[in-house]
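Lab meeting prep.
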Amino acid sequence: MNQETLLAISSNALFFAFILLLIAIVPLGLAVKSKGKMFGQFGILLTSVAFVLQLVYFVVRWVAVEHAPVSNMYEFMTFFGIMLTGSYLIIHFLYKQLVVGLFTIPVSLIILGYGSVFAKEVSPLVPSLQSHWLTIHVMTVAFSSAILSVSFATGLIFLLKTLDVSKKSISTYSLEFVLYCLVVVIGFIGISTFFSLAADDVQVQFENAQGQSEKVIYSMKPLIVNKGAVTETGDAVGFIQMTNKIDAKKFNSIVWAFMIGTVLYAAIRLVTRKSVSAILKPWTSRVQPQLMDEISYRAVVIGFPLFALGGLLFAMIWAQIAWSRYWGWDPKEVWALITFLFYAAFLHFRLSKGWEGEKTAWLAIIGFGIIVFNQVFVNLVIAGLHSYA
């Protein structure tokens, strides 16, 4: 089979896996609210089949592109989402907690959906990516990040179970803000998909900070543009012009995400007359908080050493091969170190200071925020050697 056929097979496998995971949420939700085992078994079966299809996507795409498909944002975020699905299945067979899947699978779907907004085209690897250590480094980071993300889901479950979300406090406001951020990501996925299907790209040209003419293609309607930006025909474009030292296209995407996400969040609040926390809380009615706390801790115990290997040791080996130095204080390297130090502090406080329960839950949520910031914001916005991703 030629490359085009293989890529089509892999894309279809990933699409059907996405649909199966979406469907799996229903029986898992029914199982959490009822005592019957049938719904839970069906939900796990769907999740398992979806995971197999995700692996089919990964292997077939690997064959098609002739290198591990983890070299750009689409491939990395997709593999991250796949590993989160796999991590949940591992946790399920250890602890048999369906409620963890009810919260983990939507996060996996959000990650997969987010990855789908990036370009899926195959392009030749730049020289720095032509190394087997890249594959080892990135895959280990994605797998460890996925396991650590399970602690985020169980942290959310713990807080939803133990906090009185009807009362106003720093904890309840913070929990609601975390859920609002997830809604914003969903909004970004939705508006990105809409523009890709229903609108044409807009090419904008302007003079960059170096005084050179630069052209940028906007997939979303340009609201934010760089100073002096015009269309190909010379027409004015955008509503707000920003200094050319800032990537206006990426800032434009952030603005759209928060606009649509805020509208979606407001619609949920208006229709249900409840906070998102209050909507989700009933699904944790049968949860054992101590068990969620235990799973959060165990996920970090497993994920932390793997991240140390992939995010630091293997990364430094690859850096030496690609750039002839083990460490260069690149933004990505700095944030990998911050992530490592944060989870080291997590385990330190847990083991020596006795931090458990709500403190562990909040640390797990903050840790997930650092992972997302590192894997998304640092790659896309902060200039560095990893900006190609």
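Slide two material, second protein:
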Amino acid sequence: MPAKKTTTKRKSEAVVEEEKDAKKVKVSHTSHGKEAGQVLVLGQGDVGQLGQGEDVMQRKKPSLVSLPEKIVQVIAGGMHTVCLSDTGNVYTFGCNDEGALGRDTTEEGSETVPGKVILEEKVVQVSAGDSHTAALSEEGMVYIWGAFRDNNGVIGLLEPMKTSTVPLKVPMKEPVVKIASGNDHLVLVTLEGNLYSLGTGEQGQLGRVSGFFTDRGGRKGLDRLLVPQMVKVKGKVHFTDVFCGAYFTFAVSKEGHVYGFGLSNYHQLGTKSTKMCFFPVKLTCFKNSTTSWVDFSGGQHHTLCLDAEGQVYSLGRAEYGRLGLGQQAEEKSEPTPVTGIELASRVTCGATVSYAVTREGSVYAWGMGTNLQLGTGEEDDEWSPVKMTGKQLENRIVLMASSGGQHTVLLVKDKQES
């Protein structure tokens, strides 16, 4: 076999390995899960999203999910959960009404326990929204299943009004290195540094469809929304990363500039205005010569962001404590430091909840806790960060967290493995 040739396109972001004889690429990105562990769940489980069978309707504290393999990434959709194994297999559980699980669940109760999605390629990243799931293969191909919805109901997936209960290949001419899902949209970063989007665009979250055409694509119809197309920015911009909130999108350029588009009715994009942004806006509130932004996550009306130093910030709507800035906090139009947390490695949001995973492997939660998804054991809102506890967290390190809003999923590993 000839030696593998490695070309670094972006030093810390995306890497492609090309085998001369196979002419196939293997994509890599800093966001792809590397550390394997076990899965814990908590919160609401009424449609099987906790993966613990038909009888488990709720968990006050983190509880272990039985899976056949070690897991490297967990994602909580609106009412379903997606797990990616260290061998590249995808497991799903929860609500399958519109095909979000990507597998047959006709056998009674089968949606309430983990089941494998049949994909012929090794998967390196997954994302999920309210009713859809997406998977990125190691060769840069994207697969999607389920449905996108707008305010009037289902709009389809890749074709107008056609949903899918099994994975479909997303038509792309470039290898993709990163995928991110909002509630009903999907954004892709390609190896060449281009940004593509598909799904619902009513709030501007696609970054390429004007307000005149967001109602089911206007005269051109739903193809305008469902066929992936490039998000264009003035000048030559090379994108290296993308993150989604429920109805908005953040994209980061090679130079470290942050662009945003979508819903900003509570300033969750960091714009001074509360108008929707239908096309990318360079966000000046993130421009600081000493700050490098490494992670973003958005809920329904708020955003968490993380700088390279490990400081967590929040902005957007303050109700129910989702900003973590205390009971007297008001909505914020620019990143505001969240105190009471050690240096963090990741941030994540559900609709009205927030989480920060620390570099030491703890997880802090705040926001609306009416479904016990904060891990405090109480159905109360938390206005400041609270460290999550529980028997299953003892002697374990938290690697990542994800929340659909009503339930939370954690990826953990035993301390002695570190």
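Talking points for slide two:
Helices lie at 223-226.
Confidence is low (pLDDT under 50) at residues 1-12, 18-22.
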